Amino acid sequence: MTVETPQPRPRIRRTAVRGALALAYAAAWGALALVAIAVLFLTSSRTVTLASHDAVIRPDLSGRVVLHTGPVLPDLRVDSGYPVGADITLGKTEAPSTEALVERYALLASQPDGVAAKVGDALREMLVDAVLRGAIIGLVPVLVFALVGSARRRELLRLAATRQGALAGLIAALMVVGLWEPWDADEESVAAERDWVSLADFLGPTVAVPDEAARVEVRGDVTTSQTRRLIESAVDTYARSQDFYAQAAEDAAGLELREPEDGETVVTLVSDRHDNIGMDAVARAVGDAGGATAVFDAGDDTSTGKTWEAFSLDSLTAAFDDLDERWAVTGNHDNGTFVGDYLDGQGWTVLEGEPVDGPGGSRLLGVADPRSSGLGTWRDETGLSFSEVGDRLADAACAADEDGERVTTLLVHDADLGAEALARGCTDLVLGGHVHTQEGPTAVTAEDGAVGYTFTTGTTGGAAYAIAIGSKLRRAAQVTLVTYDDGRPVGLQPVILQTNGRFDVGEFLSLDDSG
């Protein structure tokens, strides 16, 4: 008896062919998309505000971050630690002098987290944009190939072998060459003729370069003595700033602060930083030592509220980036809408006169300071007056109280904005800053006998004036820990860093209904 070998069914063969074809299409799409993504990413650029400059960031595969500072100062570069690098060209800035600009560079270099996060975010955004566009671009030729069909493709191949097809191919090649213009070579740049040297070699043996800056390289073979002195000054500023604030952060981590009890929530309160990015790591270390899991920002993070001060907001965000709960109000020096909008874009909850959920199950209310000011001592009333904003804030707090959603904390820049709400008995605690020194906590008895508290924290930036950026503190800097239990504020603990680096830890100040 003869047994016949079963033959594959036509339907099975067709399914296998379709599957193989689908895989081929997918592989072609992936290959084309990768090429498009690489081209788009490496030819993209992003303009951001970086180190108080308008800056253009371009990604590359050099594995280095190269900083072009302009015609006066030498270019800098450092290994990125990754295959991807970045070419950064600094543009306009508002710095009043080259000396002030160089000092600012040094301070930013000593606290690099905010700048590094800004560059990293820009590169990630460009990569995501390139991936999305590259995926679409890579899909187009695959779809065209599939839609044309096999019969039409064979016909086109036959036409390509004819004289007309060869002419069409030649015209296409000439168009590509015309757009490319390989004969139009750029002249050799001045920068390309200079060699990269280590910062230590650039400055010479008389200047001690900190270990953290040893991997920085400088490009420039001819530098005026004045420019070299500026760089030497920057290195000195970097070293002093790094030493002071790094030591302060290390000491803060070992402070003996009150430990929160079960069910309590601790919030780090900062205010009046005035661009002093050096204190951000210190404030975070104080909060960690006290068990804080959230942060309040009572405003005046900047001196003028201009876009060049984004570096200060970047640094603040980087210091508390891993905390899910971050609330902020803008102060009288945070002019305009830039600071509030920027913090909102960085994931902060910027309070704007409506009650929101606060820490530890509490309810929180705040509003921007209605005043604005520049670097001088003058103040400029705009829009609603200070007292009118205070009355409206009290109205909002009392309305929430009547609805059974009591606002336990008012976060404002100037604690006087919450005076009316306390007088009506519609809140338990008003937190503010503005005056740069601690005031309170002071008990306030309302008309109905309810007791609330007002508290003003000192300047976290150690600011004596409107700007506090510098290699050391101009005055004592303060961070306050606010403790909540069962949705209500129950205590405050101030921590003060003196100008000599010594910490003064205040007692835990209990808030109770008895006043």
Description of the structure:
The protein is α/β, with parallel strands linked by helices and 515 residues long. The chain has a domain at 254-461: Purple Acid Phosphatase, chain A, domain 2 (4-Layer Sandwich), CATH 3.60.21. Helices cover 38% and strands 22% of the residues. The strands form 4 sheets. Strands 8, 9, 10, 11, 20, 21, 22 and 23 form an 8-stranded mixed beta sheet that branches. Strands 1-2-5-3-4-7-6 form a 7-stranded mixed beta sheet. Helix 1 packs antiparallel against helix 3 and helix 7 (225-253) runs parallel beside helix 8 (278-289).
Supply database-style keywords.
515 residues, Purple Acid Phosphatase, chain A, domain 2, seven-stranded mixed sheet, eight-stranded mixed sheet, 22% strand
Radius of gyration: 31 Å
CATH class of the domain at 254-461: Alpha Beta
Structural class: alpha/beta
Q: Give a count of the beta strands, DSSP E runs of length 2 or more.
A: 23
Distance between the termini: 107 Å
Unreliable stretches (pLDDT < 50, length at least 5) are 374-381
Look at the structure and give the mean pLDDT: 83
Largest sheet: 8 strands, mixed
* Discrete helix count: 12
CATH architectural category of the domain at 254-461: 4-Layer Sandwich
Described by the principal axes of the CA atoms, the overall outline is globular
Bin the helical content. 25-40%
CATH superfamily of the domain at 254-461: Metallo-dependent phosphatases
**What amount of the residues lies in strands?**
15-25%
